[in-house]
Write a structure and sequence with these properties.
The chain has three helices and two strands, in the order H-E-E-H-H. With 61 residues, it is mostly helical.
Length: 61
């Protein structure tokens, strides 16, 4: 749960406020960081749902 919160917090580019803007492949580094953390967050949520969420129909089979 703590890791999920840290990844969610990492998706907000707070560490780049006031820093000199740098580009990587034509986009700012803060955008790449936000995209990476967002993908990690959605991957963690999908893993949790697929692993732990069971319907009543699944339990009967």
């Amino acid at each position: 749960m703590v890791l999920l919160g840290l990844v969610a917090l990492g998706s907000v580019p707070l560490w780049f406020v006031g820093a000199a803007p740098t580009d990587w492949l034509g986009l700012p580094v803060w955008l790449w960081s936000s995209i990476g953390f967002t993908l990690a967050l959605s991957g963690m949520i999908a893993w949790g749902i697929l692993r732990y969420w069971r319907d009543d129909d699944d339990a009967r089979r």
